[in-house]
Each structure stands twice: as structure tokens, then as C-alpha cells.
Amino acid sequence: MDFDLQWLLIGLPVAFALGWMASRFDLKQLKREREDAPRAYFKGLNLLLNEQQDKAIDAFIQAVQDDPDTTELHFALGNLFRRRGEFERAVRVHEHLLGRSDLRAGDRDRAQRALAQDYMKAGLFDRAEAAWHVLEGTPFDGEARLALLSLYERSRDWQRAADMARQLEGGSGASFASRIAHYECEIAEAAGKAGHPDEAESALQRARTAAPQAPRPWLLAGQRELRQGNPARALAAWDHLREHHPATFALVAADYAQAARAAHQISAAHTALTATLMQKPALEVLQALESLESPDDPARLPRLLAQLQQQPSLSGAQRLLALPPAAWAEETWAALRAAVARSAAPLQRYRCAACGFETQHYFWQCPGCLSWDSYPPQRLDAL
Description:
single chain; mainly alpha
């Protein structure tokens, strides 16, 4: 059968017209979809700025369903879930991002970081640790190592905390000497309680090497020597503390007097405590000094008056009231002592300078905000 060229001439224009119409339809559809996605995104952003988080989440979910490849919408949605405390939904969003094979390396690191933050906020510290480890060697390496350091502190894994702090110090150039010294001191205390004196001594030596001017290693060294029956060596360690950190020395002033009596160095200790009291007045130092004197020493009253003039406190007033003049009736002084004692008791607390957490015991690391060296050695009753 002969091919009719007339049909060919008619069919080609028709096919061309149909193809052109189909392409136009596809372009309009694609354009409409691309316009819908930003519209949903901006709608969600507007709702978020107006603090309508529930509606914003609905808008973002709709946008993600319309355009699953939009990574920024996933990040925005995951952050919203985390802020609302819906950590399980935030984890699912970020895990979905990480499961995509076409995700760029930079976005993959961002998703891994967001997932680690989800676990941290949710209190899943074991999963958070694993997630942060994945980010080592990425642009988020520094943040990941700092987060791991915080996790080791929370779990009181002091050896790993010390190792991580040394890595951070070597990589960033920032100083973590004070933290490393605290970690080693914690290791020393744990080793001492476990009956491993050699490990405790090694840890204290590492602490002094890491931060030679840190007060805590010298304080612990003196306490350790006193427990082991070496009062003279305890005095030597605390003399270093007294000379370089007179404020912190107040924490062991009473132990210093005890060691001086055991080492038969009462006269030298009396001279040292008197000098420290003049340099850095503290009620604890004054009490330690009085413990080395006879009860009727004539220097007690003027010294206590001078202490109260420099550091007025209810505790100091209570000690002054313990020395009543003969003109006052004993019953009056007893009532005054009892009243001042009741007023002073709740005030004899330490307060964290970083977060305000108060406690009756001195802490090197605040139990509330985990800050180091944030507790002043003086109690709150110093006015």
C-alpha cells in the first residue's frame, strides 16, 4: 500500500501541537507546585513569628508533604518539635533526613547535629554521646567535643572528661587547665576512697602539673597527708595554699590548727594564722587561731572586735556574745546568744555565683549549673 504523504503532512503539525500543549501543562503544574511550597513555608514562618506554634507546625507538615525534598523545611519542623518538647517527633524528622541518599554532606552534618541535640534535650545521653561522636572531624567537631565533655561531667566519668579536655586544649588552643585539675582531683578522691593511695597521689600530681596555681590540689594533698599521719607534710601543703590562696585556705583552717598540734608546731602555726588573718580576714581563720590559744588570752576580744569591724556577721557577733562583760546578767547574754544563733544558722550557707544555688556544704562544682569554682569560700552570713 502506497504511503499517503498527505496524512504525514497533517500528522506532524498535530503531533507537534499536542507535544507543545503537554509541555506547557507540565511547566504550569511544576510552577504551581513550586509556588505552593514557598507559600506554605512563608505561611508557617508567619505563624511562628506570631507565636502560633501549633498552626505553624501544621503548615510546615503540609509543606513537607508537598515537597519532601525541601531540607530546610525539615530542619524548621524538627526545631519546632524540639522547642515544644516533642523530642520523639523531632528525632523522626532528623532521622528521615539522614536516611536520604541524596542529602548533601553539609546538610547531613547539620541533621546529625540536630539529632544529637534532640537526644540531649530528651535526656537520652547514651544516644547523644554516639550522635556527637559521629560529628568528630566535621565542621561541628568543636561543638561535638564540648558536648561530649559536658556529658562526661554529668556521668562523672572524670577520666574521659580529662582526656576530652586535653584534646580540646590541643585542638583549639583554649585553656582547660583549671577543668583538668578538677577532673584529676575528682579521680584522686575516688581513688583514695577506694583504697588506692598510689593512684590518688599520681592524680594529684597530674592536677598540679596541669594547673600549678589551682588551689584544690594543694588542699587535697594536705588532707591526704593528715589522714596518713603526716601532719608536718600536711602543714607544708597548706602553707602553699595559705600563701597563694588565702581565701580558699579558710576551708582547711581548722585542720591546719589540728595538724600544727599534732606536729608540735603550735607557735609557728599561730604566727602563720595571725599573718593570714591580717591579710585575708575570715571567721574560720580566727576560730583556728583561737583554738591554739588559752581561753583567757587577752588578745581574743580586741581581735574579734577587729574581725567584726572588717567583716560584720551574725556568726562573729555570736562569738562576741560568748564573752560577756561582768556588767551584764548571764541570763540576758544566754538569751542573746540563743537568738543570734537561731538567726545565724539558716544563713551559714554557700551560694553559687553563677546560678545562685545554695547549699550548706562547699562544692568545687555547682550541683545546679555544673560550673567549676563558682562557690566563694565565704558563707552568706558575711554582710
